[in-house]
């Protein structure tokens, strides 16, 4: 394996910089039987490729996952708590599940990993979906109540809480469902549901208030999926209009938060007639996205410009689905070079968390391997990949590779 050459300059990352990897409960835990996604996975009409089933069995093996991350050199671990486990029936909160997630927080701290806890990462309880989801009457209050019930999990030892992961994607999926559509266009995103957009923003603001009432020292924010819309000549106004409902309104809603999470993987070019697919000869990842590690730099610069001063940025997801470790390492090297350049230009960036800690369930398939750590089907044996050693070691050495 050929590693990128290193430059002698130290990383520009400040003291306390978050250096870790991210996961999501439904994608790694397994047997999340009370969630909306579990029901969808087992509904033939939904045409899901394969169900999550045991996933990575991280519900039982979370200690192994944290041990590996700590041994590799990471200092931070972002994971989510599962609403459908904590409140499997409306108004009935499982103290056993709350205690389970509290053990995870304490386990992370014991291993020298700072936990970032996400409260909503795409999945909701089936009973909440049956009410109508986030656009139902009283939904915001129900979400805020759930957040309040998470107090024993996050009150002590958790410095960063994410209220909602990628609310713009939640609104996009809601728009597809309302229109009775399936699948995404060749480039760009479907139009998000406007009612869901407003509901997600209201739920976020209510959750922020709830978290601050639990412990005002917690740094609270949310994450936005950034598509890196790049205007082709003459398409600047088209690009701005296209991006506004799919991304910008969610970034603007973070003004006043303690931080905002930037999640980026590739770019989307916009012409005068809308999104333009990448050329046929472009290198693609296993998700069929264009290989474009520089995307995160564009995403950070756009987010910083839009959210304004006073709101630090954290890269909460970034990575590549591939079976080629040379290309995965090259992707991370290019991405981190872009992050470092942003910091050197004065953008306030407080952390970088890779997606994903594990090869996991990518919403319908296990084929899209983003993980730093592989998980063997059947035995669940964990094996750190070369990129995991490289990225973890980079955090210790604090020397940034240059391509």
From TrEMBL:
Domain of life: Bacteria
Protein name (Swiss-Prot/TrEMBL): Family 1 glycosylhydrolase
Protein's organism: Streptomyces citrinus
């Amino acid at each position: 394996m050929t590693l990128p050459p290193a430059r002698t300059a130290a990383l520009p990352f400040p003291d306390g910089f978050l250096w870790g990897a991210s996961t999501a409960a439904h994608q790694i835990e397994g047997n999340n039987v009370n969630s909306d996604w579990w029901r969808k996975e087992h509904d033939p009409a939904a045409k899901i490729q394969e169900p999550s089933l045991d996933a990575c069995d991280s519900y039982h093996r979370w200690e192994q996952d944290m041990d590996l991350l700590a041994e590799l050199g990471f200092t931070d671990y972002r994971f989510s708590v599962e609403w459908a486990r904590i409140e499997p029936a409306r108004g009935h909160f499982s103290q056993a599940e709350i205690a389970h997630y509290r053990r995870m927080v304490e386990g992370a701290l014991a291993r020298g990993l700072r936990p970032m806890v996400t409260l909503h990462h795409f999945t909701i309880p089936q009973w909440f979906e049956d009410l109508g989801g986030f656009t139902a009457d009283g939904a915001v209050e129900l979400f805020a109540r759930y957040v309040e019930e998470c107090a024993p999990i996050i009150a002590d030892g958790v410095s960063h809480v994410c209220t909602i992961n990628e609310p713009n994607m939640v609104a996009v999926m809601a728009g597809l469902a309302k229109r009775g559509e399936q699948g995404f266009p060749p480039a760009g995103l479907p139009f998000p549901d406007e009612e869901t957009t407003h509901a997600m923003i209201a739920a976020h603001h209510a959750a922020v208030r709830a978290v601050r009432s639990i412990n005002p020292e917690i740094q609270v924010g949310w994450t936005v999926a950034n598509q890196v819309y790049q205007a082709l000549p003459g398409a600047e106004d088209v690009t701005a209009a296209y991006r506004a409902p799919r991304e910008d309104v969610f970034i603007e809603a973070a003004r006043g938060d303690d931080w905002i999470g930037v999640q980026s993987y590739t770019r989307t070019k916009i012409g005068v007639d809308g999104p333009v697919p990448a050329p046929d000869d472009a290198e693609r990842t296993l998700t069929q996205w264009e290989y474009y590690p520089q995307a995160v730099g564009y995403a950070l610069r756009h987010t910083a410009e839009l959210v304004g001063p006073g709101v630090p940025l954290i890269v909460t997801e970034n990575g590549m689905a591939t079976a080629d470790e040379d290309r995965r390492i090259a992707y991370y090297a290019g991405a981190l070079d872009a992050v470092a350049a942003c910091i050197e230009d004065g953008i306030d960036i407080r952390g970088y968390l890779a997606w994903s800690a594990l090869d996991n369930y990518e919403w319908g398939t296990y084929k899209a391997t983003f993980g730093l750590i592989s998980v063997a089907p059947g035995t669940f044996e964990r094996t750190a990949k070369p990129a995991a050693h490289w990225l973890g070691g980079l955090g210790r050495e604090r020397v940034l590779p240059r391509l």
